[in-house]
Each structure stands twice: as C-alpha cells, then as structure tokens.
Amino acid sequence: MTMTRCPLVNLLFLGSRAVNMLYGKSLRPLHTSPCKASLQPQAGFKPERVAVVTKTTRYEFEQQRYRYAGLSEEDLKQLLAMKGSSYSGLLERHNIHTNNVEHIVKSLRREGIDVCVVKRGEYDTEVVRWADAIISAGGDGTMLLVASKVLSKDKPVVGVNTDPERSEGHLCLPVRYTHAFPEALKKLCRGEFRWLWRQRTRLHLEGTGINPTPVDLHEQQLSLEQHSQAHRITTLDSQQRTGTLHENYSKPCLLPVRSLNEIFIGESLSSRASYYEISVDDGPWEKQKSSGLSICTGTGSKAWSYNINKLAEQAVEEILRIGKSQTGLDIPVSREFIEKVTDEYNESLVFSPDDKRLLYSVREPIANRVFSSSRQRGFASKVCVRSRCWDACMVVDGGTSFEFNDGAIATISMSEDDQLRTVVLQN
Q1: What is the C-alpha to C-alpha distance for residues 131 and 144, in angstroms, rounded to an integer?
Q2: How confident is the model at residue 41, as a pLDDT?
Q3: Quick one: 83 and 181 in the same domain?
Q4: In percent, how much of the chain has pLDDT > 90?
Q5: Is residue 212 over pLDDT 90?
Q6: I need a labelling partner for 7 at 20 to 30 A (CA). Which of 181, 186, 193, 369 fits?
Q7: What is the extent of the structural domain holding 126?
Q8: Mean pLDDT across the stretch 9-27?
Q9: Sign for the pseudo-dihedral over CA of 374, 379, 380, 384
Q10: Residue 287 and residue 222 share a domain
C-alpha cells in the first residue's frame, strides 16, 4: 500500500481505467476474509468462577478527586456546577451503571457461578488467576484494561456495556444483552456463540535508562507535569530497590502487558516533535521526526488508528478536482460520488481482529534533507523503534505508560500465545 502519496491521487493519474474502477467496483479493503474463529460452532461453556471488573464512573471519580479535601456532598455539587457539570446527571449515569452491574452479578449467581466483583483499581494478576472467565463491566476502556492483564489465550474475556447510551462499546456484547444478560448466559451454556481470538501485540524493551515499571493513566488521570513526576517516582523507586542509577538491559525485557488496540510512542508534550529511529521487519533504520508513531492490531484498526488515517470528504473533493483539471478526464465531483469514494477508502483501513499483521502509522511526518518517511503507514510483522526523545512515553491501549527516552529500544511484535479469547454473540 503506497504511503507517501494519497492512493486517490495515484488512482486519478492512472486515467479512465481508474474512474471506471471507482464507478463500477468498490475499492478492495485491506482484509476481506471472515474471522476464522467465527466459522465453527462451539461446545457449551459455563465457568465455575467469574470475576466482574467494573469501571470507575465519572461520579466516583469526582468523589475520589475531592475526598482528601474533606468536601461534603453539597460542596461537590457546587464545584461541579461551577465547572458546568451536572451533579444529578453524573449520579444518574452512575446509578444506571451500578444497576446493570447488579443485573450481571445476580444473573451469574442464579446459574450457580461463584462471582467476585472488583473495581478496576483493585484488578490485578491474583484476580485473573482466580477466575475461569472475566467480565468487563463498563465500556471499551474497561475492556482494554481487563484484557491487558490476561496473558493466557485460554481465559475468556467478555465485555458488557453498562451504559450503552453514553458508551459505544465496540468490544462488548451487543447492547441488548446489557438488559438481557440471562439470555446471553443461556446461549453460552448451549454453545450458541463463536469464539474470536483477537490478536494482540507484545513489547520487548532494551537499552539504557530503561524502567519497565508502568504508570497507570486510567486511575490517575494525570496532567503532563504529574505524568512526568509519576515516571520519575517509579524510576527512583526502581533504582532504590535495585541499587542502580541507570539500568542497562542488554537483553530485551518482555513487558507484562499485551496491547489489544494500539501502542503509541511519542513525546509527552504534544506540541514537541518526536525524534526516533524505526526499523520495519528487520529492515534498515530510518531517522524520523513526527507527531508520534501508532502501531495497531486488527481490533485497533477501528479505533485511534482509523481516525489518524481516515480521509475527510473535503480532502477527497479537492483531490478529485485536481485530478480532473490535471488529466482532463470527466471525473465526477458530485456529493454522492465524493461520499462513495471517501467511504470506500476509509473502510479499507479496517482489517480483521484475527489478522496476524501489525499496522504502523506515522503521524504528521516531517520530511527534509535530514529526516525522511519512506512509508507513512504499512503492514509489518515486527517494528523496532529506538528513542531519541527527551520526555517521551510508550502508551499501551491509552491506559498504561512506560518511560521511553533516549537510548531505549522497543520491539513490537505478535505471538500466537498472546491471542485474547473473546465471545461473539448474535443480536
């Protein structure tokens, strides 16, 4: 797939054949084969022990935020009103989430299943080890957090959207099962579902000044200053425990997280260009400066990566008009045709969750006589990145951050052992 020039431009300059293709046939997507996991029906599945991991609602977050200030509930109402937030609205959404969690738990217990309910801040490897299956009760963010700590491909993870009016829930069961969870359980027991093994990425870190201790961004909701301070604190703690000032990992260290959506590498300050070197599939190293680097899975191709790479109708229209004037061809620029081309192109950015390839995307690459970007995005089996940044981090699924400064080397790849076992239920 060409990266340095928009594929639409390439099509336009091919002439009338390209126009006919756009009129008569849809652009071929990057991945069109069905998910392998969805082809065969499964035997019934009924776990003995289930952990239900619940999200932190905005209401709970605001309470925790001001707890140590000794604020009363009335004080909280006034503070929220000053910020333009509705106390009653936050409480209503909190109650909806809580009621739906209770519905899930009661449904499980009626089936004789042992249930452990934990807040996302309490969720750890001990909970994962105890459970036969894990239910993420929240939205996609909670599902990503739950998945990150499940390292075995044999342990199922099921997402339930507990506030479907305010959360998209791409990774969760269809919305109707939020209120009809007993029906979902019966389908699981009868085998009326499909397993979907979603591919995930693993991270190896090596080099100088490495600190494999993560900072959890979900709970801390850190500002830039707090984020940097948190990394300094975890680095200092690690150094005090090991008695070393600058740890040098001569061999790659496998980090204890797996990425279901994407890994982002870049400077913490978004206005600062990220400087790094990149090697794709053991190819030559290339110096790059950009707004950061995203490396996603098929699951993540519908998320941030999609929004990084998608085209707007305005851009498509302008390209079509330029192509029309440069070639003299009768290229249509009607609203209907522009929408068709835009949709076909954007749909081609999405590929299957079970695809074994990575998709890397360079955000806003800087190209000059020193820095280049031979491909703005592309598929790969392995991507290596050497940091030349000052205050950078490597963020896994938007929630777990690792320090990634000058001298650090990250290798992002996939392994069959890292697949996530999820459930597909029909509506």
Answers
A1: 17
A2: 52
A3: yes
A4: 64
A5: no
A6: 369
A7: 49-192
A8: 35
A9: positive
A10: yes
Predicted pLDDT at 217? 79
User: Are both 265 and 379 inside the same structural domain?
Assistant: yes
Are 261 and 331 within one domain? no
Q: Is residue 24 part of a domain?
A: no
